[in-house]
Structures are given as structure tokens and as C-alpha cells.
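Catalogue entry: protein

Sequence with per-residue C-alpha cells
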Amino acid sequence: MAGYNSFIFEGHGTSEKTGAYDPGAVYGAVRENDLVDKIVTVAINYLKTTGLAIHRDENNYTDNDLGGNSYTAKAGISVHINAGGGSGTEIFVPSREKYLKEDFKLIKNISEALGITNRGVKSRDYNTGRIYMRSDGVALSYTDYYKEIRDAWGLGISLAIVEVGFIDTSDLQKIQANINNIGFFIAQYIGKLCKVDINKLQESEVSNDYYYRVVCGSFKDKSNAESRKKELESEGYSGVFIDIYKS
């Protein structure tokens, strides 16, 4: 058994049990798990400055990574990117959630930073499928719909699923431009669960996880993009690739 203060799980990823990789939602060349990995890396780097022991893992759907561990806060978060053509930030929490104040603050901070809709704090009933919009301080009582939340609650742990925004709409560019802000707000959320304040939006130390791209043209016609790629390769440039971008 390992002891932690709290946890942050990445949506999807590689299962420790099966070795299978689940990218989550995919839009063009962009994968949900890759985006979430960057966000969680930022959050963890902020939390390292506090001395808190944070359990970071991925693909909790398959692995149930909470099992066998102890958590002083008995609460944490699973980070996801939504899909399906919508827009906005939302968070799903247990029906008997004890941290609604923190949940409301998190999605308010993220949605305002991205300039997208605040879709609310929600819970969902397993038996009826009904989604409830939560009110701060008002607890419900039913079996939770999402397995990840349900399994955690069975261990006496509150797990919230935050959907930062949508991968397949204009939300994507806003998410990509605000990785540091999103990571900070998630770190701040975890800090509050652990009764530790993280107030200063500092420069994140994640430079080793980022790459700087040099763009040499954008084309509506794929054949033109392929011609430019061949042209650059003929000049001796390596690592040239075509990336799909939606303006």
C-alpha cells in the first residue's frame, strides 16, 4: 500500500494491467490523452512545490488505480477532454459529493480562462441515466452512473471527472493555448482538497515536455501540402510532417 495526499488521473492512456493504449477522443492528429498528459504535467509541477504526495496515473477505467492505496484527502480528480461537437467546461461528481464549492470554482476558473461556456457541476444516476445540475451544498443519494466515480466511492473516495472542453470544436485551440492555466487551476483544486493554498500563477517548469514547431505553409488542398513536404525533404530537412489544423 502506498500513501498519498490526493491523486490526479489522466483520462485514458496505457493500462498497467493489459498494456493496451487508449488515446481517448481523437480529432485529426490530436489525441485526448496527449493533451491531458500536458495539463497534468503542469499541475504536478505546481504541486511539487507544496510537498504534497500526489498519485499520478492514467487509464483508471481499466486499472482502478485507487485500490490498495490510502489518501489523506480521500478525494481527487480525473482529467478528460470532451468530444461530440459541443463547447464548454463541465465536471461530473459523486451524488454525495462533499467538495461542491471546490468543484464550482474549478470549472468557473477554467471556462473563464478559455472563454468558453461553463456547463456546470453535474451528477448522473446509474439507474435512470438522468443528469442532475448540482447546487452548492445540496447532496443527493443514488448510485453513480460513471464506473470511475462509482468504484472510487466504494472505497470511500470522492473522484471528480472534469471535461476541460471539446476536442472537435473551436475549444481545442483555446485548450492548447491555455495548458499552463488549466494545469494551474487543477493544481489549485487539489491543493484546496488538501488544505494547501496555491495562489500564485507562476511560470511552469515543463519546458522539457514541449516542442516548438516551425510552420512552412498552410494549404486547403492536401496535395499542395504534400508537395511542400517533398520540397523540404529534397532540401535535406528531416522530421517534416503534415498536421491537420482547423481554423
User: Anything to note?
Assistant: Residues 3-193 form a domain with the Aminopeptidase fold (CATH 3.40.630.40).
